[in-house]
Fold these 3 entries.
Entry 1:
Amino acid sequence: MTRAELIHQIKEKRSFLCVGLDTDLTKIPEHLLDDEDPIYSFNKAIIDATADLCVAYKPNIAFYECYGLKGWQSLQKTWAALPKDCFSIADAKRGDIGNTSGRYAMAFFDESNSGLGFDSITIAPYMGKDSVTPFLDFKDKWAIVLALTSNEGSRDFQNFENKEGLQLFEQVIDKVNTWGNIDNLMYVVGATRGEGFIKIREHAPEHFLLVPGVGAQGGSLEDVCKYGMNGDCGLLVNSTRGIIYASKGRDFAERAREEALKLQKEMEIELLKAGIIS
Ligand SMILES: O=c1ccn([C@@H]2O[C@H](COP(=O)(O)O)[C@@H](O)[C@H]2O)c(=O)[nH]1
């Protein structure tokens, strides 16, 4: 999906919601466990219940690869069931020496080889240029690079300052910006980092940001928008557990829809306030 198509979807759906699909067999309703592929059954019901309210879906790959071959099959079926007007994110946090990163890119982008054709993949940038650029060689695909993450441990490295007073996440963005552009690069910034978005926007004013951390992690959507929104919206805000595990009963899909709808309504207000929609 191109940047223009993504912005169009945000305006059409009046939403910049990304629904996470971190599907855990111990958390899904019991009645689904007798299905042939409970993970897929759960995901399909969540997708059908939320597709008109969100612009992106983000399966976290750990929740699939932990089940081995069956998990990869559930992931493939889930990817194939995603609406074509939604941006798909493989939250895989990959990155390795160049030729290995090339294979990771094939695994998640090249449907003819792997059966998976995600629009984007999350990347850990620690190994540098040759670990990131293979993901940028694919047309209309995106590398979403970890910048300032939502977890407590992010402070262990990401806030280290160099002699010029630049924190590590700022240096990462400045460097990664030289490898790609606003049409193939996004950054991950945690919703829990509030005013951290001000610095992020100093270094990446136009890039889209993937923002996990609202809902279960307690990040504030209002703060994310106040400090992080740009003229094209520039945000994909993810919520996973807050939506998909709103109920463990037979009403799980309806309850997921209710939670997604609450976020979509808040997002619509933010888009109106910013003059991105009318
Ligand atoms: O900084 C980061 C990067 C990735 N994540 C991932 O996003 C979702 C968040 O799930 P919630 O249930 O809404 O907390 C999950 O897949 C994380 O691995 C993140 O949280 N923070």
Entry 2:
Amino acid sequence: MSEAQELEQLRQAIDSIDRQIQELINQRACCARQVAEVKEKYAALGETVVFYRPEREAQVLRNVMARNTGPLPNESMARLFREIMSQCLALEEPLNVAFLGPEGTFTQQAAVKHFGHAVCCHSQVSIADVFREVESGAANFGVVPVENSTEGVVTHTLDSFFDSSLQVCGEVTLRIHHHLMRKDPEQPIERIYSHAQSLGQCRRWLDQHYPGIERIALSSNAEAARRASLEPGSAAIAGEVAADLYQLVVCNANIEDRPDNTTRFLIVGRQATLSSGEDKTSIMVSSRNQPGALYQVLEPFHQAGISLTRIETRPARTGTWNYAFFIDFEGHCDDESIRPVLAQLQLVAADYKWLGSYPKAVL
Ligand SMILES: O=C(O)C(=O)C[C@]1(C(=O)O)C=C[C@@H](O)C=C1
């Protein structure tokens, strides 16, 4: 057989498989439509029907990864199913998602990674605006950064929970790669723009390569890229999406000081999420101002053998030198093992707020 004949044979096989895949995807979409009808049928009169089910989506993606035999890697396969589910959900209900903008931010990438491409993403200028959009019902969900593995907590996000009724209904992590980008690489660099967090994540690289050059913190990396696209003597540190969006040349790729640089984002919404089997819970507690108070807050976790994934301190709103602790731990508030712990916490804490139970990030 010639090369052309061999290719022709294999391509016919691919065409036939594609037809079957397409047929099956449409069958799946029909099922999703029926699921929507069932949800509508059983919703109480006047009750908002909840189409988006994060716990089920997490289970579907985990199942895909668990049964995958390759040659496609688990994560690539799960990403394909992420998109299929995103399109299926759009048939049930098109979702509006508010994210910390502008266009081209890592938060936008996180939103797409979590919900897939079939949602409508709406850029917001601040974290407070993301919360407001969701609280008012203008958006179904919001996506905000909460912590970075190099630079630590995003305080604005944590503080937004003090006065908000929104719940955490999901988390998503994104490996962050920073690039130095320019409009015209021939021009000498006079200043470098980026978000303060990103300047911090590339501090050592900048000290080594551009020690005397002014670093200017802006509201976002995408804004930094936009400015660099307008000013010939400027460079920006941002991600690939921003470079594409503002047609900048990447002069130095992956300049983050730590190769495992990762940001965690929260999905906030107005609905509680059921248990997916592998969940996390976020709470906010403040301890009484007395000896052993923090110990009392942590003791129930220790007794129940529950692993804390994060603890963060923020000044509380209740008075000077009072503190609130933001605690994330493994488990769902409905789990048998978690319920008594939360009950105990409410007894010992001066203030207690449950922020949400949600599936652990799958992708
Ligand atoms: O199982 C459901 O509740 C569905 O609506 C179906 C489906 C899916 O496509 O698998 C779609 C949207 C939901 O967020 C979860 C899953």
Entry 3:
Amino acid sequence: MTGFTINGTDLLKSKALNGSANGDANGRSNNYIAEECPNGATSSTSNANNANNNNNSQQIYVDEAEVENRMKMVINEENYSYELIKEIADYFLERTSIRPVIGIICGSGLNSLADHITDIQAFDYKDIPNFPVSTVEGHVGRMIFGYLEGMPVVAMQGRFHYYEGYPLAKCSMPVRVLKLVGIKYLFATNAAGGLNPKYKVGDIMIVRDHINIMGFAGNSPLQGPNDPRFGPRFPPMTNAYDRHLVRKARKVVREMGIENDVHEGVYTCLGGPNYETVAELKMLRIMGVDAVGMSTVHEVITARHCDLTVFAFSLITNKCATDYDSSEEDANHEEVVMVGKSRQSICGELMCRMIRDLAQDIQQKNGKK
Ligand SMILES: O=P(O)(O)O[C@H]1O[C@H](CO)[C@@H](O)[C@H]1O
């Protein structure tokens, strides 16, 4: 966690070292002295202890209320508080009577997935209070409520990426909004580079799992104070992509007769916006990555944290070059969007059939109750 410093003093560290929010057992308040050691390291002592403290360190008075304020600022700016997210959810709930069960995120060039939705009510991101705006070509920037295969759904035509300048928590904040709107399932889609040599441009990869490389570097959408109203501090990720929905997708793909163009694999998200070097792609392949993009992973982590059931697929929009003499063209976003558009009908059909099948399951389950 960064951003909690005054004059180089780590406020969070000071707070943690100095006891409860209401003062210590001896009735001392939690205002305390933080010491900035000459070597740049920081240590803290309580106000009372410090009277006897006679070393060379520079002393800085740290106010408990100020710490709380700073924490709130960071939570609101980067993580969005539960209350703020609820306000955004209420904005929709007050304006539409549709109560979606499934949330869909349309990837680059895949806006048309939402064309299958009927009885739509659309909200431009720019009109939604406290909502970010899409800045990437191929992402319309609209939230669409309606019905798909008879199921109430909500679709995001446009997502937020880290490279746009949004922190990860803000990129995936809409997932929490959709949770509070009432969805139970998240269907995420993306455009991705095919790293598995068997993948062709235009193929689909059902996401079986992901590798959270940004998480390896300590960057997570769940970073910061945890609000248990969303989920636990340490959520498991072993069933991140629901195994029943993966099985269902296999069946649907067979029914569609497209099994030769569809794979199951591992996705990873890099920060972007640059595409990868050959050396990076070689490393990712060794790690077991099949498709690479710049989204989805943080959305799925956020979705699993708040107990949504997740299904995701990648449209392979380009082949990644893993040697310097490769004849593959350099990746470029125009091509990514173009391939998305050229494969919109197959991606749309997969989505519709999955939702039709899932709707039948849900009906059956409800019938049995
Ligand atoms: O993941 P989506 O949003 O589909 O878009 C993918 O396509 C863009 C790069 O061409 C990046 O934003 C990458 O993440």
